[in-house]
């Protein structure tokens, strides 16, 4: 099992990572919300353990953006306070579980295992019409033919395929793909153009579309 921990307290994070790995759980760690979205866009995790009070982007906002993109990864939120209002806000943003600090490590392990078991069959492969992507193996196919994508194009396609048929806002797409080093808007347009060429997307069978004043979407031709 592989999970992502987003926690800015380095001592607590190190303790959690060590304890989980003793139980055979691989745990990647990042300390801010923007970088978390970037990692989640490019990798498959079975559970997300997410602190609320994070630099750059709060845990609430991270969870909200994931759900808006259609990402159904189970989320355990961590907080130093157990106020009902905080819990309700977390659940409204899409959290699955809640843990108040300080907590017993055994309880965290139990909750992680319970949530991972609930979605053991969570998709790592996505398909829209003849376009397929496997997040784990980094394989992309169009009508059965394996395509060669640049690393950046693969990230863009991963974000769009996970959200499909819902659109992804430009700002959200740039945050997920570039993290803190967000380029100019024209740069995104160039990379989308390159992605279209790499996935052989043209004519009546085109799947990648621009939504004016919003962003981009991948959807079936008959959904246009």
Describe the structure.
The structure is a single chain. The protein has 224 residues and is of the alpha/beta class. Helices cover 42% and strands 22% of the residues. The protein folds into two domains: 2-118, Response regulator (Rossmann fold, 3-Layer(aba) Sandwich), CATH 3.40.50; 125-223, Arc Repressor Mutant, subunit A. The protein starts with a strand and ends in a 6-residue tail after the last strand. Keywords: DNA-binding, Phosphoprotein, Transcription, Transcription regulation, Two-component regulatory system. Residues 123-220 bind DNA. This is Response regulator transcription factor.
How far do the termini sit from each other?
38 Å
**Class by alpha and beta content:** alpha/beta
Which descriptor suits the 3D outline?
A: elongated
The name of the CATH superfamily of the largest domain reads: Response regulator
* Main sheet attributes: strand count, strand direction, barrel closure: 5 strands, parallel
Q: How does CATH name the architecture of the largest domain?
A: 3-Layer(aba) Sandwich
State the CATH topology of the largest domain. Answer: Rossmann fold
């Amino acid at each position: 099992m592989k999970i992502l921990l987003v926690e800015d307290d380095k001592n607590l994070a190190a303790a959690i990572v060590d304890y989980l790995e003793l139980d055979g759980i691989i745990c990647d760690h990042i300390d801010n919300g923007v970088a978390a979205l970037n990692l989640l866009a490019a990798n498959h995790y079975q559970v997300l353990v997410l602190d609320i009070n994070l630099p750059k982007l709060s845990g609430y906002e991270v969870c909200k953006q994931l759900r808006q993109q259609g990402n159904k990864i189970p989320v355990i939120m961590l907080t130093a306070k157990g106020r009902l209002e905080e819990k309700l806000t977390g659940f409204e943003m899409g959290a699955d579980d809640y843990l108040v600090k300080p907590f017993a490590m055994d309880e965290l392990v139990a909750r992680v295992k319970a949530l991972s078991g609930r979605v053991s069959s969570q998709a790592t492969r996505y398909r829209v019409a003849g376009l397929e992507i496997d997040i784990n193996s980094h394989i992309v196919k169009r009508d059965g033919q394996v395509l060669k994508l640049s690393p950046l194009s693969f990230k863009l396609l991963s974000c769009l395929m996970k959200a499909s048929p819902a659109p992804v806002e430009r700002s959200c797409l740039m945050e997920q793909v570039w993290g803190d080093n967000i380029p100019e808007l024209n740069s995104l347009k160039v990379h989308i153009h390159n992605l279209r060429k790499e996935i052989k997307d043209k004519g009546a069978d085109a799947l990648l579309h621009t939504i004016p004043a919003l962003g981009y979407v991948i959807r079936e031709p008959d959904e246009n």
